[in-house]
Design goal:
4-stranded antiparallel sheet; globular; mainly beta; 38% strand
Length: 63
């Protein structure tokens, strides 16, 4: 398999583990990126950011 760098989606940030998860949609049209700040970023198939929303823990005592 050969990979080709096409575009940088997020600017580099200081610190470790800023991105906790990445997932493609089953039809390969959207990419979801979860950050350590509990923010989910959605990108389209061209690498353009389309949506951004924050999440909250299921247990309100957890920060």
């Amino acid at each position: 398999m050969q990979l080709k760098h096409m575009k940088t989606l997020l600017t580099p940030q200081d610190g470790a583990a800023k991105i906790t998860a990445m997932a493609w949609a089953p039809n390969n049209t959207k990419l979801a990126v979860c950050t350590a700040d509990r923010v989910v970023l959605l990108f389209d198939e061209n690498g353009e950011r389309r949506d951004k929303f924050s999440t909250k823990p299921s247990d309100s005592k957890v920060e």
